[in-house]
Amino acid sequence: MLKSLGRLIFFLLGRPVWLVSTPVGRRVLIVGAILTPVVYLGLSVEAREWTWSRLGYGYLPIGMWVAAFGAALFHRRWLNKKYWSYWAAGALMVAGTLGLLSLWHPPYGLLEETGLSGHWGRIFGGEPLALGIPKAALAFWLIPFVVAPSWAALAHKRGAVAMGRTGLVLIHTAEASVGALAGRARRNGHKEEVVVEAVPQEAPEKKGILAKLKKREKGEAKALKEPVEKEAGQARPMKRTGWRLPKADMLAIGEAQPMSRAALNEMSQTIETTLADHGVEVSVQDVKVGPRVIQFGLVPGWIKKTKELRGTKTSEPVTQVDMSRVKVHSILAREQDLALALKTSDLRLQAPVPGEALVGIEVPNPNPNRVYLRAVAESTSFRRITAKGGLPLALGQGTGGEPVSEDLVELPHLLIAGATGSGKSVCINTIITSLIMAKGPDRLRMIMVDPKRVELTPFNGLPHLVVPVIVDSDRVMPILGAIMREMFRRYRVFEEAGVRNLAGYNQKAKDPMPFLLLIVDELADLMMTSGYEVEQALVRLAQLGRATGIHLILCTQRPSVNVVTGLLKANIAARIAFAVASQVDSRVILDEAGADRLLGKGDMLFISAQSPKPRRIQGTWVTDEEIDSVVKFWKEQEGPALAEIKMEEPDPAEGQAGGDLVDDEALLDKARELLEKYKHVSPGLLQRRLQVGYQKALQLVETLETEGFASAGEPGKARSLVKKEGDGIVG
Known about the structure:
Distance between the termini: 102 Å
Strand content: 5-15%
CATH superfamily of the largest domain: P-loop containing nucleotide triphosphate hydrolases
Number of strands: 18
CATH architecture of the largest domain: 3-Layer(aba) Sandwich
Largest sheet: 10 strands, mixed
Structural class: alpha/beta
CATH topology of the largest domain: Rossmann fold
Number of domains: 5
Radius of gyration: 36 Å
Helix content: 40-55%
Shape: globular
């Protein structure tokens, strides 16, 4: 078989190499290699874009084959007739190459969804991989039958015989294994001697591997007859199945309304004409149609300046022509003129577009489209983050319609802010849904805080939740303290294991440790009740939580400096800004203007440590029915037991009963001095003045209460202490 395959390969490769080595073959190959890129670059912009979307990089092999065939047809027609089989084999090779290119997807651009060979290349490959790889392999497999049918048939026939023998070996091995397991199960279940049926003897001429397998099967059957000691009443535990992830079929499919090419050309012409009327020469080089906005990429033109130079007495004046680029500032200064010409007030100019030498003008799309969660969850970037073990966030689609997914592990925390009705709550729901679509409860645990009681409560019952959704603001501080205790516990475990972070620990440990995600829907409500304590706890978690797999997602609809403090922004680099009322709010979130010009309904600006420049994204949309179906899917599962994360809340009654009082007289003396100085103290004041934690400050307050001081003030506010009237001091 190997000898036949070697001859076949030599025959298939030798003749093409000989043809290329001839002067005619070399000439045909060189003409095809040069003519293809020259013709492609000579096409118009629309033709190149159409070719790129249909063929991608596949235009190179197709163009070379067509150019070579045409050159041979024009110069040496007998080559096409005599060696037609080689031209057919070349066509099959081109088809197989297109199929292989369709299996790879770039991270961005027009080919992200279709692969490197465009829409037409998916015919010979594409997704799913279980179907795309065989289709691409079929084209290469047919090449020997086209070039040398007899040799290929002989080689494939011998290969089929060898594969048949291998299949028989595997079948007999499987039968022996299944028979052995069945015998053990019957013997262990009934404690009876297993009766093994007689195996018919093989014919004398059948020897080799099959005979050895039969002999091994007889030996295993003989061993099963021997008595095996087993304790009475001991049953073998059944292995429980793992958690199953929901499929994307549970999510809805959206239908996009395409924008006509004529309308885009008209808008491009309007932009060029409007700027030219004001003396600014530009050309629209790139147009990206997104679900909510259309981005036009402008290239500044040239300005011609003439200057007359004085000549000598005998010579005439000389005219000098200077060419200079149009300044970007002159384009940005015509924003209102462009808005008037395009009949819209929601323009946004960006100079330059990140990664490109273009000035971007973002115009609202006349036919806006919703971005459904399924479209982003099935994208390549989302699957890539899931495959490497990250926490994928399906944010939406960019200005060019490309899906945008981010890994929360790399961010590692996220701050979301925006006015009421801008899409903040929908964004939170889509983020949570995308996480539970990609991660089971054995890999991700969540703690949700929802003071409004209506946004996150539909997720109650998820096995991912450590505790039910917290709706009472008074329970937040004990939960934050419990999360910090869990963080320090993980650091001690990592220290003992000799690793640095959660990823290193999960590679070594037998039982992986899950991520822990804290989601706060309304941060402003918590900052109003106990701002300093909440801020200190969140900042501590943001600083130290990343290595232990603890991540934060904080949301607020009031982006003021009292809520989104500078300390929080310094530790949370990734932020999402929805539409806000003023530039001041935009600068609080993003440190620059821009969010005040968003369109609302999911239109957002996203920045992170990896992309400090704001990136405009149209957020994903998910319905209540989709959320309910995914939550129901998880509720109906009974998976393996989950690792316990302790979230015990301290009982306030224990401190008043005397079980949690402070015995440190030095701290008590300092607390009494502060009380005499300020006439009232609070846990936050004791934290700042005595440099103690929140729990210790609460214990100091309770200890002072037991000494004869009464607490006063509104519930949830900072508690104040005044001396009782009988002691002579009135606060």
